[in-house]
Amino acid sequence: MNISSLLQGLASFAWLGFVGVLIMIFVRASRNQPAKGLSSLVVVLLVAAILLTSIGAGLVFLQANEYGVVISAFQPNGYRTQALGPGLHWIIPFIESVQKYSIAKQTYTMSSTSSEGAVQGDDSIQARTKDGQQIFVDASVIYAADPTQLIQLHITWQNRYEENVVRPVARAAIRNAVSQFGVEELVSTKRGELEQTIRDEIESKLKANNIIMSDFLLRNIRFSDEYAAAVEQKQIAEQQAQQSKNVIEQKKNEAEQARQIAQGQADAAVIAAQGAAEARLIQAQAEAQANQLLSASLTPTLLQYQYILKLAPGVQTIFIPSGNQFILPLPDTTLQTQ
Fold first, then answer.
1. How many other CB atoms are there within 10 angstroms of residue 80's CB atom?
2. Alpha-carbon distance 56 to 3, whole Å?
3. Residue 177, beta-bridge partner list
4. Bridge partners, 69 (sequence order)
5. Cβ atoms < 10 Å from Cβ of 312
6. Average pLDDT, whole number, for the chain?
7. Does residue 91 lie in a domain region?
């Protein structure tokens, strides 16, 4: 409770006391009873009531988020040229009064949900897109009165600026902005641009009416039932097409994997065959070289010696067939130990 309210409360009690004592005086007078002392009390109460009422009427306390326009009969234009800021102020009692204005941020919501908007029922904004589609927009405007222009705001709109400025300006800006975009753009890529267009227009129009816009919220965009059904069918078709595309892509991947596996197996077979052929070639070359070396080392004497070695181990001599005149002695094949 501020001091102004306290003084006004005391003044009310003083007036009640004055009336009460005055009634007691009349009652005693009607009964021919003395009213000694009551006359002085009633005068004191009257003076106190008048003083408290005057002081209470002259003191004005404004909260931290309040400014006041002083309506004055002493001013030629009917008001003081400077608004009162937060705090305790003195005005001329009964001649001047203060019209208080809140400079706190306020939110004005227009919504299809009756419990959300400033107006009961469906208060969403109906608008038509560039291609003629009807849409419904839910939006909120956050704003505040400009304290530096409060006198002019009071002169022009007084306390009607929310209903007569904020609401019509916001609804008109939304309709104007929506008409610049196609419905497909609002569904996909241009919603942010739409919101910025609306924000700029509302801010400019409110500033011209001494109101500061803090923010604009594009809460929701709804489409007509027919268009919503068409969009849903289109989305279903796109999802099915995407699903088919994914299946085809999967089959392609599987075929590519199978081709790569087959190619790998074929490459492995070729490499294995090449390895086997090269190994066989090396073996054949080795055998040929061995045969060459063996052929080069064969002499009649060696062949005879190898032939003799194949005979029975116990044979020491050989008898030459008839016709020969001497016996061929066998070479000694035993190993000499040292």
1. 18
2. 8
3. none
4. 99
5. 5
6. 82
7. yes
Q: How far is CA 298 from CA 87, 164, 181, 200, 295, in A?
A: 134, 128, 105, 112, 5
Distance CA 127, CA 140 (A): 16
The verdict on 191 and 135 lying in the same domain is: yes
Give per-residue pLDDT as tens, 264-321: 887 777 787 788 888 788 888 877 787 777 677 766 666 666 666 666 566 565 555 5
Residues composing the chain:
338
Q: Is residue 90 part of a domain?
A: yes
**Cβ 59 vs Cβ 10: under 8 Å:** no
Both 80 and 9 in one domain: the answer is yes
Cα gap 296→313, rounded to integer Å: 28
Label each residue of 256-317 as H, E or C.
HHHHHHHHHHHHHHHHHHHHHHHHHHHHHHHHHHHHHHHHHHCCHHHHHHHHHHCCCCCCCE
- Predicted TM-score (pTM) of this structure: 0.60
CA dihedral sign, ordered 128, 134, 135, 141: positive
- SS3 label, residue 318: coil
End-to-end CA separation in angstroms for the chain? 138
Q: 129 pLDDT exceeds 80?
A: yes
